[in-house]
Amino acid sequence: MDETTPELLKFGWEEWVALPGLGVPAIRAKVDTGARTSALHAYEIETFGPANEPKVRFLLHPVPGRDDLVIPCSAPILDRREVTSSNGESESRFVIEARLEVGGQAWPIEITLTNRDRMNSRMLLGRQALKDHISIVATDRFCQPELSFDVYTTRKMREQAPKRSLRIAVLSRENNYSTRRLVEEGEARGHTVEVIDTTRCYMAINALAPEVHYDGKRLPRYDAVIPRIGASITPYGTAVVRQFETIGTFCVNGAAGITASRDKLHAHQVLASQRIGMPTTAFAASPKDTSNLIGLVGSAPIIVKLLESTQGKGVVLAETKKAAESVIDAFRGLKANFLVQHFVKEAAGEDIRCLVVGGRVVASMKRTGADGDFRSNLHRGGSATAVKITKAERETAVRAAKAFRLGLAGVDLLRSSEGPKVLEVNSSPGLEGIEGASRKNIAALLYDTIETRVRPAPVRKRAVRTTGQGD
Fold it and tell me: I want to staple 229 with a disulfide (CB 3.0 to 4.6 A). Which of 85, 103, 237, 367 is the partner?
């Protein structure tokens, strides 16, 4: 597109134009020489970003009568002006700049944002946009090549959508490495990333307008939520995630998957239902079944594990049957829920952490326990190194994450003589160890998935309404 020496163009009173920087490949615009600045239909307008470089986000229905077709847009704010419409009403509007493409030429124009939902033309072209290289023929329309709304029904529309700025919430109570990396990487890509303390959220639960509130105010509309729910607040944390899901916000990990993965008994039942390999596991509530319970997983040594243990806490290796009975009695005395599990000796205190993002393994590392410790958790003093995994291990990790419908998961595998066995599926995997061992930017890979996921999808083609109220 030539933006330096535009040729004279002939415009009628209505023309097809494009705003590619906003993700709008086709829109009908009314030419109005009585207006100085152009105007674009926008609703749910909200500001975001730093005070010294504010941006604005808004939604657009580019096709009259197609409320199902929504284009999310964002742009830096140039100004805010008081604009008086033809009927004498004044309105304060945000002003942005966008590149106008028409007739094989392109040039930047200023645009004010306002709700033109009742107007048949979703865009108004004012004098500033027309400049000196436009010749107006007031009695004609569509002097320039006509475009088509059909472009919104193609996959190309999704693939070529601009990488707009997103507003993302990280649900986390901790200022740890993972949280800082998510904020750092998101802001480096031009997004606004807000860390929200999950326990300080409260919810308005109703059928028509469910909301999430925080510090006395309703939280804004987020493009995506990245849950980092701690084990101690799983019930309330997943309720908050569920509320965002009800609103329609894309959540990297859903409430159901977080809940199921956090309860080890439930998690193993999910894995078993999908026929995914795992160590033989048994559970019982009655103390009368202790001996039979141990027998179900084989002979000692066995693992006794609390159902909601994390970072290796609440996991005990019982070397003998008598030791196992003692540990089980102790846990029952504390009224703790636990399970017993076959000890995979050949793993030799090592496991494989596979990080699954968007349905594929993006990094893996081998974790080795500290001297004398069968647990390989890094929080327990273990060490991590990069490792090349097998095809079977990769497929098992992907299947495990899919079983819980997790967009981000740390799948821990044991290398047994019978093939890979899933030890655990973590819905809030730490990034520090895996980024350090693999030397990969895991946060960036997660944002790649989020950006692809929240782009507008092509809509089904149907008849377009071309009549409406005038301007």
Answer: 237
Query: Cβ of 21: how many Cβ atoms within 10 Å?
Result: 18
The DSSP element (H or E) to which 18 belongs, if any, is strand 14-19
Residue 370 is classified by DSSP as P
In three-state secondary structure terms, 92 is strand
For residue 207, give both structure tokens: 């059928």
Q: How far is residue 264's CA from residue 336's CA, in Å, rounded to a whole number?
A: 13
pLDDT in the model for residue 169: 96
Say whether pLDDT at 308 is over 80. no
Interacting residues of 154 by C-beta distance below 8 A, sequence separation 6+:
458
Sorted by where each begins, the domain ranges of the chain are: 9-159, 167-260, 280-343
What confidence tier does 293 reach under pLDDT thresholds 50, 70, 90?
confident
Look at residues 63, 129, 130, 67 and name the one whose alpha carbon lies nearest to residue 96.
129
Token code pair at residue 83:
């604009």
Q: Report yes or no: 101 and 19 within 8 Å, Cβ to Cβ.
A: yes
Tell me which CATH homologous superfamily contains domain 9-159.
Answer: Acid Proteases (2.40.70.10)
Per DSSP, the residues of 183-198 read: HHHHHHTT-EEEEE-G
Cβ distance 170 to 229 under 8 Å?
no
Specify the CATH number of the domain 280-343.
Answer: 3.30.1490.20
CATH architecture under which domain 167-260 falls: 3-Layer(aba) Sandwich (3.40)
Q: Does residue 304 surpass a pLDDT of 80?
A: yes
